[in-house]
Amino acid sequence: MSRPITDLAALESLYGEPVAASIAKEVPALTPGYRALIEASPFFVLATSGPDGLDASPRGDEPGFVRVADDRTLLIPDRRGNNRIDSLRNILADPRVGLLFLVPGLNETLRVNGRAVIDTDPALCDSFAVDGKAPKSVLVVTIETVFFQCARALLRSRLWDPAAQVPRASLPSVGSLLAEASAGREGGDAYDRSLAERIPKSLY
């Protein structure tokens, strides 16, 4: 039988007091250690909220692609994608963002909460150019809180364990996923055949 939690007091009673360290590690600006984690990270997930719902978008590039302007400001190039721009649409409506940074081989993650604006200043965008290709915009994130997350989730998932890797051929291909979701209008074998050549040419 379902027994949903419907109020804060019941929830807090179920879980008890938070561990003291989990509160102490949350600060309003980057520490030197937190900055080092961001500068070492090639990947983060950007969470946003808007009138049409929620979005969690993967963002990745070479370590250091998220530029630390100061201890309260991050600059993030909006690299080439599929032009859905779900995250950017949400930010226009609600500037609050959440960022979850991962560093390969490190079981701790870093969480940043703040507010973002979309900046199209040509000089700023050009400063993030790769192979002569600048992003169309740069997210300027003002940090409100930042803290690291303990290792339990990544240890349980064995995320960095080579023995836990799933062979790509054991799961549906990108083309078959797209064909299934679109009732055959997109995707298929031709899509898969062109993917390996198309993706490297469209990274930036």
UniProtKB/TrEMBL annotation:
- Residue ranges of every copy of the Pyridoxamine 5'-phosphate oxidase N-terminal domain listed in the record: 31-150
UniProt cross-references to NCBIfam families, sorted A to Z: PPOX_FMN_DR2398 (TIGR04025)
Query: Which protein is depicted?
Result: Pyridoxamine 5'-phosphate oxidase family protein
Organism, as annotated: Azospirillum humicireducens
Please spell out the taxonomic lineage of the organism that makes this protein: Bacteria, Pseudomonadati, Pseudomonadota, Alphaproteobacteria, Rhodospirillales
